[in-house]
Give the backbone structure.
Amino acid sequence: MASRDQHGIHPPFADADGKRRFGVIGKPLRKVDGIAKATGQAVYADDIQLPGMLHAKTLRSPHAHARIVRIDTSRAEALPGVHAVITGRSMPIPYGVIPWTPDENALAVDRVRFIGDEVAAVAAVDEDTANAALELIDVEYELLAVYLDPVEALENCTDAIHPNPKRPERGNLSKRVELDFGDVADGFERADVIVEDDYTFHGTTHTAIEPHCAVATYSPDKLLTLWSATQITHYVHRALARVLELPAHSIRVIQPCLGGAFGGKSDPFSLEFCVAKLAMITGRPVKMLWTREEVFYAHRGRHPMRLHYKTGATKDGKVTAVDAKILIDGGAYSSFGLVTTYYSGQLLTGPYDFPAYHYDSTRVFTNKPPCGPKRGHGSVQPRFAFEVQLDEVAEALAMDPIELRRANWQGEHTKTVNGQRITSNGFMQCLAEVERASRWKERRGKLPFGRGLGVAGSMYISGTNYPIYPNDMPQAGIQLKVDRSGLVMAFTGGNDIGQGSNTVVRTIVCEELGLEPDMVRVVAADTDLCPVDLGAYSSRVTFMVGNATIDAARKLRHQIAGAVAAEWEIDPGRIFMGSGQVFDLEDRAKCISSMEAFQIAEARCDTLGSTGAYNTPTLGGDYRGGTIGASPAYSFTAHAVEVQVDVETGRITVDNCWIAHDCGRALNPMLVAGQMEGSAYMGLAEAVLEHHDVNRFGLHAGPSLLDYRIPTSVDTPELHALIVESLDPEGPYGAKEAGEGPLHPSIPAISNAVFDAVGIRLRHLPFTPGKVLAALRERRAAETAVGSAKESV
Amino acid sequence: MLRLPKFEVAAPQTVDEALALLAEYGADAMLMAGGTDLVPNMKHGLFEPKLVVSVSAIDELQGVAIEDDGTLVIGAATTLQAVATNDEVRRRAPAFAQAAGLVAGPQLRRMGTVGGNVMLDTRCQWYNQTHFWRKSLGFCLKKDGSLCHVVEGGSKCVAAASNDTAPTLMSLGAKLVFARRNSEGQVVRKTLAVDDLYKSDGAFNKKVAGDELLIAVRIPAGAPQHRGAYGKLRDRGSIDFPLLGVAVRIDLDDAGAVADADLVAVALQARPIRLKKAAEALVGNTPGKPGWDEAVDAAAEAAYGQCHPMPNIPGDHDYRREMVPVYVRRTIRAAVAGEGPVHHV
Ligand SMILES: Cc1cc2nc3c(=O)[nH]c(=O)nc-3n(C[C@H](O)[C@H](O)[C@H](O)COP(=O)(O)OP(=O)(O)OC[C@H]3O[C@@H](n4cnc5c(N)ncnc54)[C@H](O)[C@@H]3O)c2cc1C
Ligand code: SF4
């Protein structure tokens, strides 16, 4: 790893008293785009209106699995107002966000794989004409066997969803990963207690409030410009070049202000290719805005998983071995599925140390909207199962669940059983925080029947060193331009999807160059203007772009401080930059504005600017897949949740959720708390309300915000964000991630709290009132049986 | 966004003008009050009017009045928010006010009206979907198709009455004032008991035609010791339609015993259903006195026996059935205590 990649955890400058203090880092500064969003001035993709713009719509498959025999677009083309109609044949080159699994087409070429799969697209003068034209496209289908159940899809495959002529035996198998670490048999041998059970995680989706939207123009000199509501501009750029067979340098991709993503805008999507192609054909700007229903079909949400776990532990609670078998319902395409399959096993190996671990994960194709990455990609489901199982181990050993977790803590600066390097680790403090805040010791196990407390822990990555497509270039790049006006512009490929990454960039530039927030502006996610960053996924942006920003800003700082020092004929060490001023630490009378300092530097050094980059060190286990999930730093979380269970209605009410999260350093505590609360909200919603599923016909069960039930404000519990700062040696000023980790424990913590409240174990999501009532009945029946058995003895 | 089809809008100022338009356009015209159900249904291709007749500008349809005999008269275009927060309505017809206050969410209650709620279309998970979705399904017999997906082989639509205020109005013995133009072009008014409005056909669960304008809802003065409450089961604390609704009216005599009672449930089948046996179980018993708890349990048990939710609306219908006795019990207790609504948040 280049030395540029590590910048230490401390503030960059010493003050006159020799102490280092942060200027803006750690302050709850408002987001760069906060006011614009609140006042409606922010420009989202759908706000873009261009002269002569056409509107495009997509024809979708009404069948869950069928071969396309024939498509006739002539009637649609003849409709007045229609400018172009395209089908799969217009763009036959397949793509996939993971280069090893390119199994998607912009529009179906010869086969549709779920109800809602894209078949054709129309550009017309307005949406109504485009919609009318869709009705005039004649498609002849030949129906194929439909697979809605992953077991069925795997075991009885007659019409493979993705036929593989070279390896027909693969059937509907998407990916299988089996890995073994340590001596699992010996681990179970040594165990005093073994708990083994089945768990189910249902499907859930992102429900970003902004639906997907893209606008494209194609200029006479053959420049394609695409504005898209994407969270990964760079991969869209690459995919467009591939599918449209254009040189990448003639494509510009821009992400406008984004209304939420949560992983649901990580793949390249059909609409991006379609508007580009339609703009190329018509020579006019083309926009496509999906309906909410279409967003549900595009999905890429959380994979349903059937999980079997076996955990062994000694009498004192030390875990000796973990064995997992996981069946993953992938839906119709691969998407990020290769990574999902690895993550389902790879990311379990903290915050606890276990000496032996085996997992066997299988992802299967089914004829349903494709699954992909959702906040906490691939690891929320196994975390749920395992943290419930740990509670069962604690129960079996009559141990306090927090104590059991403490007993297994892996420690700092260590290595996991699967070879991941752990640096900072604030998990013990997270546990202490939720224990204190929830008044665990006084209340857990002692609340009246129907009320309970539960705990769970987790770990998550701050980006990984797996760059999706193999290359040796930096994972994050940034460019700074210093202007005579006193303004510094930062150009970052990082995607601000509402998480606040542009604010982080601005704050770091301010910190390093001693500027006020309004002296720095950020241009982000525009492939013409900004150096490549790999985008907003895997919680990588603060860590990687943050480090790149320090790298670039520090170079500039040396240049500027050096120039001013030379001008004043003093040692550069005496130059202090802060609050928009530059002065001599030993002679405060020597003080100029940062604008004047920039001008001195520009006069002496020529036009000012710098670049910065970040790359991960070499990480990961020495085995196939060992780099997947290998992160330069891991975040840690513990939740305590307080629930009430209405034993008559079965309804679970979450009253409080205490979220303790080790984010390394909170660069902006307001943004960190926002991410923690948002994550917990999302997890709680998945546990008790949301369910993304299809009905018996393979039709989406309710593709609307009425039927897909995300919690309203009255359904949201009190969320208490407790920030823990472990200061990671490699993060920017010690920062790690905060956007995904804090989701994980909320779901198992609810199950564990319900156990405390009413003595039932909920192992199958979602925790509907009906399931709670059934479990309560079962428990009563078991008690009666025990009671009568006792009597008969 | 889903697009609205093309249509024309008229905003008549008087009842007569509105009725003239309805007569002229016949089946091509539809009335709109708040539009909170009409507009989504038009976007889904369920309603296809050529002319939408807005009733918002008709003064006669607005407001709450109390007649000398204590009858509450509520203009059909009065918003749900207005009745839910009106002190007289809350005092005289608590169940109705509670139900109005639990319809949808705050924004929709400020647009949605009492008349629109009374006249609400039935709902079904196979029906309240987009045109693309229904077309992929092959439609159903309520609209554009010939099969029912709830009752296999069924020839009658069993979509669920899902209007929260309907069962409360039934329990209160409310009457509806309608106006229409007869074949001679004269405006005629009629008064119909709410009980007689609904029929058990989910395709169209009302016994009035599309050319009849609801003018007002008349709720007769209650007994001196009137008690009422509404219980609503739904997934979320806001927005969602009922998965089950229970309206309770209890009239106590001077001694505090139940002199008369009425219970009506909604969101089960095409029309709200009166839980007669459940009500009878209460009569003669005195809240708080020995035998009361047993009477309440008997009412709950009777309701359970009578209610058979079907998989018409989303959610687990077995669970909805299990909740019948629970919500009946709780709503009776709330009514007696002068509390309610029974709702989980
Ligand atoms: C997200 C959402 C959630 C909802 N949740 C609920 C809920 O929980 N409970 C519930 O009961 N409803 C719910 N609704 C439905 C609706 O909002 C309410 O029922 C509301 O009261 C309808 O009133 P409106 O004035 O908007 O009716 P409109 O939409 O204007 O009309 C509804 C129907 O009544 C007819 N109509 C209207 N006025 C008259 C009149 N004066 N004479 C004759 N016919 C008339 C119309 O032609 C139409 O068929 C919900 C709607 C949405 C969109
Ligand atoms: S009950 Fe539902 S599926 Fe059956 S006809 Fe009525 S609306 Fe259609």
In short: The interface with chain B takes residues 60, 62-63, 115, 127-128, 131, 289, 291-293, 646, 648-651, 653, 689, 697, 699-704, 706-707, 709, 711-715, 768-770, 773 of chain A (CB under 8 Å). The CA atoms of residues 646 and 652 of chain A lie 7 Å apart. The first strand of chain A starts at residue 54 and ends at 60. Chain A has a mean pLDDT of 97.
